[in-house]
Amino acid sequence: MILIGLLGEKRSGKGTFVNFLSECVRPKRVGRVRSVEVLYETLKIWGIDATRMNLTKLAIAMDNAYGNGTLTEVVRQRIAKDNSDIVIFDGVRWLTDEKLIRGFEKNLIIYVTSDAEMRWKRGRAAAEKVGEDKTTFEEFLKEEKAKTEESIPDIGSRADFKIVNEGTLEDYKKEVRKFCEKFFKRGEMKLTSPAFENNGLIPSKYTCDSVAPINPPLEISSIPNGTKSFALIVDDPDVPKAIRPDGVFDHWVIFNISPNTANIPESALLGICGNNGTGKTGYVGPCPPTQYEPSEHRYFFRVYALDFELPLKEGASKSEVLAAIDGHILDQAELVGRYKRGEMK
To answer: Residue 185: pLDDT above 80?
Structure first.
């Protein structure tokens, strides 16, 4: 089990983060534990309205009466009963919460924040808590100084990941996707070829030593759920600087490949082609120059499973494709081939 501590000021977007993360990590099971639920349950039993002020007063009273970490202990017990693959502790506020999270072998803390006025407007619009739609901005700022809120920025300074949620919902989803890409779901998808093994020699029929070079066949396996398209990029990072200052030549750039594509055949016609290193679309076979060292080059085949289709046109550059897929990668896989002129037929 992985424990994620979700930290953020009120109305920063913590609930939305939970929803987006759950989509991102499917089919992993995501559980959610909220310390505020204990406060809600208590106030309900007493017949007291669950206003933000009453929730805050109760949390402080519990700590004052029974010692620091009272709510943290309740959360610990609820986490222990959760059998999910990932458990989110939503509403981290106390230093004892941080200590609890870091005590787990696999743990992460994420800090979601945004401008105070923006959060106040969100709260008035949502009106989730009693009286929230009538709260003035001055009252909101006063609540920000409550004891339950004062440690949030401090704990946030030690978070493993931070999101400033001040853009559109799509912008926020993109940031959650970056979090997901960094910490989850990488390495499950595989890219292989029946023509050569990883780090093996590429047959000459797929290179410039062939009269009509064609792309090698490729196979994609363990495709993640939610894949809407693939992007495929093949490049050579061993180009002599005398030929290309950046030392890289792009051999193949394709995007918006159908998510149902598990096999890419020879001479494939699929997706939308971007420009290769010659400034044209299509596949260019390996062709390492013999007059430079190293005479054997490496060719990196990388496939990206994406959660959307790229809004790019034919002839887009590799850099444009990579910029477009940033924040939308569900998983990626790599296959490396080698080639030296005249070495393999």
So the answer is: no
| pLDDT tens track for 218-239 | 999 999 888 999 999 999 999 9
Residue in the block written with tokens 């002839």: 315
Q: Which positions ≥6 away from 228 have C-beta within 8 Å?
A: 259, 306, 307, 308, 309
Contact 223, 247 (CB under 8 A): no
Q: Which tens digit of pLDDT belongs to each residue from 38-82?
A: 899 999 999 999 887 898 899 889 888 888 888 899 999 999 999
CB under 8 Å, gap of 24 or more: what pairs does 52-56 form? 52/10, 52/129, 52/131, 52/132, 52/135, 52/143, 53/143, 55/129, 56/143, 56/146, 56/147, 56/148
Residue 260: which residues within 8 A CB-CB, separation 6 or more? Answer: none
- First-last CA distance in the chain: 50
More confident residue, 186 or 60: 60
- In 26-100 the beta strands, taken as DSSP E runs, fall at 30-34, 86-92
| Alpha-carbon torsion (246, 252, 258, 263), positive or negative | negative
Helices 95-102 and 70-80 pack at an angle, to 10 degrees, of 30
pLDDT more than 70, % of the chain = 98
Alpha-carbon distance 197 to 200, whole Å? 5
Instruction: Calculate the alpha carbon distances from 173 to 180, 307, 326, 327 in Å.
Output: 10, 11, 12, 8
- Domain residue limits, the chain: 2-183, 190-340
**Which pair of structure tokens corresponds to residue 7?**
């930290």
Q: Evaluate if residue 255 carries a pLDDT over 70.
A: yes
Going by C-alpha positions, the residue among 33, 6, 1 that lies closest to residue 98 is 6
CATH code, residues 2-183: 3.40.50.300
190-340: CATH topology is Phosphatidylethanolamine-binding Protein (3.90.280)
Residue 133 confidence class, pLDDT cut points 50, 70, 90? confident
pLDDT of 273-282, one tens digit each? 999 999 999 9
Residue 164 CB coordination number (10 Å): 14
